[in-house]
Amino acid sequence: MVMLSDFVKISEYEWEIPQTFRPDMRGPVRLFSTRRLLENSLKDMSVEQAINAATLPGLVGPMVVMPDMHQGYGFPIGGVAATTYPTGVISPGGIGYDINCGVRLLATKIQFGEAQPYLDRLATALNDYCPSGVGVKGKWQLEDNELGKVCREGVNWALRKGLATEMDVRRTEEQGKLDGADPAEVSQRALQRGRSQLGTLGAGNHFMEVGVVEDIFDPEAARIMGLESGCLTLMIHCGSRGFGHQVCSDYVQRFQSAVKRYGIHLPDRELVCAPLDSPEGKSYLSAMRAAANYAFVNRQLLTHLARHAFEEVFAGKFKNWHLTQVYDITHNMGKVEDHFINGKLMKLCVHRKGATRAFGPGFQGLPSEYLKIGQPVLVPGSMGTTSWVLLGTEESMAKSFGSSCHGAGRVLSRSKAKKEVRGDRLRSQLMDQGIHIRAGSLPGLAEEAPQAYKDVDQVVKTVCGAGIAKKAVRLRPVVVIKG
User: Fold this and answer.
1) Which of 22, 135, 263, 276 is packed most tightly, with the most Cβ within 10 A?
2) 4-90+97-411+453-482 belongs to which homologous superfamily?
3) CA distances from residue 300 to 129, 154, 181, 198 in whole angstroms, order as listed
4) CB-based burial, 81-97: b 16+ in 10 Å, e otherwise
5) Which tens digit of pLDDT belongs to each residue from 380-436?
């Protein structure tokens, strides 16, 4: 049992569990948190999971944990772990079941005051155009050959089909495509599950949210990103659907024997892993990248459908109703990256589970227009609360492998939230706040109640106080679509 007294306080926003805490740890656990958030985190097993993850073979530097941390499968959600490439390991639990779950933000020039009379109609149009819910099927029913192209090409596939713009591709992390994806390493069951789900939102914590630019903290960055005060935005949060879930399930099962084969001893079987240079490790990397490319395309197709909804509601009423992409980021991914460790440049496999990349100004992987300001970091709040656009910093490269938080972070499990919150009352409360809600079910709505999550403003205050991100823009929700 970990106690608050086991932590070493580094600053108001940084804490550490030393490597000496347990003899099997290969590095310390570094937490970005306030004391209050840390005390909340001790109510579940997330800190113990972070300590367990710090035992992985090939771990480099600290196991990093963000303030939105909560318990996950093997790794805590909000965890970042880097292993040596190619001699370290890769762990599916350190990436998650929803591979490349991520967030996309789009901007408009439509002022909220002018759009307000049409928002209920917009909520209905978005709900009609963008399928959501458990197991829902999408408009694109692909055969294996075409699905293989999606897995290999990513958003470039959508661009070829006229379903994306050049700006969409340029303003997506990795330009919407991870090299090295191989659908041959994906099971037939995963392909079957993914064949009909492209262009669907799913359920759980996935959503579409129309927001309003409420506060601007960095006017120059907001201008470059195309975010104007009082204008509508659209945020899309979803991932690789059943396709990515099956990929993770398949390899978690496969790696159970791999750890025995390679003599890897773990404190938790949910941490199963394989050496990156082993046949199993290479296969998982190829399959994970295929699922990641699928997820990029999924968000792109939802963007295409959302544009139709905006056109239906606003074309002819406003001169410039178009949705332009701000950025698309991933928060469940394993990336091979170069980082300086003790002054030496090293190639690492960075696991980010419920954490986003937050590279600072000058990073060559960014769109040219963002080189000056750094990578946009999209941080959705809980349903009915504000969301944030942050910017990556140089300091994040030194402290967190270029990473930051991904959201508010749960404090109540879905089952507990459903026991404590009535969906019909929550819907009425949100409507009273001026938020137009479309939800697949009232129990599903209750699962995502604001009280089930941490205060996103406190999470953002923490990462900015620690220097691993900085504030740019705050958004207020006015329409929410839930599966």
Assistant:
1) 276
2) tRNA-splicing ligase RtcB (3.90.1860.10)
3) 14, 10, 18, 9
4) bbbbbbebbbbbbbbbb
5) 998 889 999 999 999 999 999 999 999 999 888 888 888 888 888 989 998 999 999
CA dihedral 39, 45, 47, 48 (to 10 degrees): 140
406 catalytic? Reply is yes
Whether omega before 57 lies within 30 degrees of 0, making that bond cis, reads no
**Whole-prediction pTM value?**
0.97
Q: Specify the length of the chain in residues.
A: 483
What are the φ/ψ torsions at residue 395 (nearest 5 degrees)?
Answer: -65, -30
- What digits encode the pLDDT tens for the residues 154-213? 999 999 999 999 999 999 999 999 999 999 999 999 999 999 999 999 988 899 999 999
β-bridge partners, 336: 349
Reported as a single tens digit per residue, the pLDDT across 301-337 is 999 999 999 999 999 999 889 999 999 999 999 999 9
The candidate with the shortest Cα–Cα distance to 335, out of 124, 132, 172, 178, is 178
Q: Measuring CA to CA, how many Å separate 46 from each of 29, 65, 73, 75, 305?
A: 12, 9, 10, 8, 37
For tokens 């190639």, the residue is 347
For tokens 């944030």, the residue is: 388
